[in-house]
Amino acid sequence: MSKRVALYLRVSTSEQTTKNQRRELMTVAKRQGWNVIHVFEDAGVSGAKGRDQRPGLDAMIKCMTKGQVDLVAVWSVDRLGRSLQDLISLLEEFRATTTGLYLHQQGLDTTTPAGRAMFQFMGIFAEFERAMMRERIKAGLARARAEGKVFGRPRVSEKVEAAIRAARRKGTGIRRIARELGVGVSTVQRVTGKLPVGRMTGRT
Question: In this predicted model, what pLDDT tens digit does every residue of 81-138 receive, in sequence order?
Fold first, then answer.
């Protein structure tokens, strides 16, 4: 049974054409005995754009997810994307849906033993890139904290904290305090949590 194949074509500007990509991929499909059932195209769309701005790519991935194709043929890897992060994300889509990938210029066909091995290496490199990114983020956060930067929601002023404590000592409910002072309930709970239990007589 011949493979159900989808072609993905892309050019960056409206002055360019996808005709050459289509012709070469159709020639390969005929030689391999593939059954081309879909042709997805993003004409005049930069490879730096994400899936939400590339309707052809989006439709192709949906087709893969539904199991409608066995293989996607692309003229070159740079037709899929220009950033490593986007390529990694797209490779994960192929791996998750078990859809094969054929890259004409790179000579990669993941339906062959050699192609599958190369695809595994690409997965390793992708994981390495993610690990490096996590390490860079951690290092950046640690450096920022060392410089005294504070993350998360900004804390209220000492004046507001004092007003919260005073209102709570009078027995005012937490929600009413939050409403009257324009702060969150969690902020009131955090501030009043420091007060001695015996001195908080109001109900929440």
Answer: 777 677 777 878 888 888 999 999 888 888 888 777 776 666 555 566 667 777 888 8
For 137-159, the DSSP string reads HHHHHHHHHHTT---SSPPPPHH
Domain coordinates of the chain in residue numbers? 4-111, 158-194
Active-site position among 12, 14, 76, 186: 12
Q: Give the HSE-up count for residue 174: Cα atoms under 13 Å, Cβ half-sphere.
A: 13
12 is catalytic: yes
Tokens of 156: 């209220």
Q: State how far the alpha carbon of 136 is from the alpha carbons of 82, 129, 132, 140, in Å.
A: 21, 10, 6, 6
> Is 81 in a helix, a strand, or coil?
coil
Class of domain 4-111: alpha beta
